[in-house]
What we know:
There is one protein chain. This protein is about 50% helix and about 20% strand. It has about 325 residues and is of the alpha/beta class. The strands form two sheets. Strands 7-6-8-5-9-11 form a six-stranded mixed beta sheet, with helices on one face.
Amino acid sequence: MSRLYTPFNKAVLASALMLAAQGAYANTVLKLAYAENSQPVKAALQYIGDAVAEKTNGEVTIQYFPDSQLGGERELVEMVQVGAIDITKVSSGLLESFSPLYGVFSLPYLFDSKEGFYRVMEDENVMSTVYRSTEAQGFSGVGWYDSGARSFYMSKAPVKTLDDLKGKKIRVMQSETSIETMKLLGAAPIAMSQAEVYTSLQQGILDGAENNEFALTIARHGEVAKFYSYDMHTRIPDVVVMSNITKQKLTPDQLAALQEAIDESITLQQELWQEEMAKTTESARKDFGVEFFEIDQAPFKQAVQPIYENLKKKPELYSLYQKIEQVEQN
């Protein structure tokens, strides 16, 4: 027994403990969870894990919990707040309930083009203000993904004019701005989770919903809603958010590598999004029998102008809106 306490064995034991501690510190496993998403988003999130492991020589790896395994988007954000998971990807529409600044992306007809939208999302002066607005709540934004333009799809008849929306029950996200937009357009907004939309359309609880084209195929809403009208009232980005606790447990170099991986995933997602969107639209036509309609946006834009008038009563949000307008037009 005494030989266990020799100076030699003590040195070996100390070295082993030091190496174990270094190994535990060097091999940091981050938990990334997300709800149901399109394939371009899934591929981009997977890229983050592959890239950060390569950039840190395996010091940082990511464990995935996909497709709502740990809950819906709100539950995932709440888990990020307390560090139960490290990273998630959610709609900025949901984040409006955590920070009013995210409501700017729910403003109707804010962006005139995809190119203008991209310029705004890549502008650090704009986005750093938005991303940091939730720091006091335990997390911040670290990147964004294209989620397309949201338009109306209906179960019985297409939306071609404002009259076609009057009194129609339309599903919206739990967003104050989205709800007000629907009211000004003459619709009856109903806030509910994405998981309930199919059955609600099928049973007539809803007359329609609003989302990008992926909802027609991935969520199979094209089986119960055959009319898609391109009014493109919002371009609401997805946002990658990270826990403050996560930032504290990574070294500066590891954190920089992770951010670099996220930035690269944004470019990848944009490329994949365009490819998949073309395939999805064709599938919606061919496999689901969905009809697509182009409409005149002008009357719709005019109807929602009270939102912009009321925006002046919210100085911080109005200032952000003005920045966005300036960046988009340049």
